[in-house]
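Model: You mentioned two targets. I'll fold them one after the other.
Researcher: Yes, keep them separate.
Model: Target one:
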Amino acid sequence: MKIAFDAKRAFHNFRGLGNYSRTLIEGLVLNFPENEYVLYTPPFKDERARKWYEDLKNKGNLKLVVPSSFLTQTFSSSWRSLFLTNVLKKDKPDIFHGLSHELPPKIDQLGIKTVVTIHDLLFMRYPGMFSSVDRRIYKKKYTYSCKVADRVVAICEQTKNDLDQYLKVDANKVDVVYQSCDPMFYHLEDKAKQDEVRKKYFLPHHYILYVGAFSKLKNLEHLITSYKYVSQYHDLPLVLVGQGAKYRHHLVQHACKLNLENHVIFLEDVPSRDLPALYQQATVFVFPSLFEGFGIPIIESLFSGVPVITSTGSCFGETGGDAVEYVDPHDSDKLGKAMTRLVENDKLREEMSEKGHKWVKRFHLELTSTNMIKLYKSLLS
């Protein structure tokens, strides 16, 4: 099969959507090298993206396509919507997969089988967090993509339900294909690497960890409030790893109001290669988000052997199963007590770690890649 991807996020985004794109592509290349994979992206300069591609290119049949003409390079930000259809008409892949909500205009006229991944419909669930212009643009793009795609991939049952509720997408057209995380989380770092990372960020041997964006939806103000309870009984810091300088400033102010400025540690711009060691040395991982498409940090933590506390509702039951502890994301008293109970109970943490390691195997990259290949093959049979 010749499988083509809208890989813009893989080369331009180093958060959730970019991680999804890179992990999916990498899993397919490594586990199904007999196929040809073509990545379409506007020009990029980030050395992380270049290194990722160069490393992967040596492991499989991989081709990169970027705009080459003066016109397409000049309008590279609009290349996907204005020029990509003509490129696909010439290249004639068997399948084109839009990895982040979009398909090019008129692609349904090319005779190419198409797939689009929908991660979430946050702009419809939480409209107040998006401008009216963005909401209109997103709704138009999502609606079009779901209409013309041969198959729609939802990354969880929650998203599949939302597609039905908000966009009236036929459930028979939607396949739930779970995602994995980077395989670097599958393996335990040696003590030297763990010590190196811990000392690099001036961390103690024990801490409570959060990894994700610094944004209102992640419910971090609530987490800091809940942590106040823990700090009354235990001297281990709350370490927040992520990005979002504007909201981080708000969180710092909130920590200061609670006299926690010396107990809450913010780490920004952490290289991904340091994350496994940060996870593996945490006492507890807490992910109190209000809503997610999937919640990748949860499975990163489970692969790392660290017990997880997350929110009730959303997709979290799919991600964590019976291996994590769920707490009402609006109840700071319950969250504080849940964190304290896990910090104090070595046996409970060990039991949760073992249960989590068994549960998370269903999200191993080899399995998620196999499920995606099955979907592609079904389109061509």
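Model: Target two:
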Amino acid sequence: MNKESKEILEILYKTDVRPSDFIKQYRKYDCNINMAIDFFKKLHIQAANKKVLFKEKKPESASYEISVIENDLKEKRYGIINISESAYPLMLKEIYFPPPIIFFKGDFFHKHSNPCIAIVGTRKCSSYGRDVAAHFAQELSRLGITIVSGMASGIDTCSHKASVSEKGGTIAVMGCGIDVIYPQENRNLYSEIIEKGSVITEYLPGTPPLKNNFPARNRIISGLCYGVIIVEADDRSGALITADFALQQNREVFAVPGEIYSECSRGCHKLIKNGAKLTEDINDVLEELSNINRLVLKNKPLALTSNNDPVHCLQKTDKSSTLKLNNTQQHIYNAIGKKPVSIEEIMMKTGLNISTVLQVISELELFDLVKEKNLNQYCRLW
């Protein structure tokens, strides 16, 4: 644990400073972590015996908790990362209230660097819901997309189980301490995710799964992802809270339709009526991921040779202009012919991951070299 992480823990857990208060000051000081920490240190000195922004908690228990965390970190029982570190997930950092500290087990850094999609839904799911969640999770994860969920019973569990052994893997966001397994029925799944994916939480080790923790946890699930897929949710499902957070965070919301007589379909159907994307297969999700990459590219200047790749000259048929493509762009362009090919086929031909393929296809579209002929099928224009 680095110096900044330890000082943030001391501020948050030895006093009554809320994580949201810390984030406000962190952003007030232009994301300078040391200035934010110094602010709370000075405030603590000035407060003395007064109730200013926070009051002192029982110092013995707080220092004991932090000393236990330090010992656990030394023994590599779990890891910790704070919001100022470069490895902290960029998309999560941009939400309204990101967690100042994240505890994690497993390969968190690699998994969150993949494109992430959340799959959430009711705990009391039908066999249809289980099958749909497993299908979406497995197929998306096979393409290198990391599946994020909350490890609750039902849809969450099905999503984790179906994706944990695939290429993209899975991330479980907990509403309790990193060392607390909840629900207990997922003990084996918890161990498997740690081995092949990652389990994360913002809560101190030992924190029980309190009811109020879970709505707050949901903002992290959506915050890590490009979009959220809702599979079966009734009118009062916690999955709808995740969908609300996704909308606030400018993420895509996908809803899978269900039986009209089922209570578990009402939440999804309501979302669809309100503008969520009706989602029948993974192509509906891949299409939006492609659109996201295209929007990002349009808002940023293209630097096609910024990685110092050797460049290839590609001339349009009118011979009036010459475009320079780097190795990756040329490789993907070569994999696309006059006959439409799917994203999956391009990935198989090139051996590249979905994130790279989607980004480069977007670049080639901007140069009018390829176009989307059918849903997620591309062909050359030249």
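Researcher: Noted. Anything on target two?
Model: The chain has 16 helices and 14 strands.
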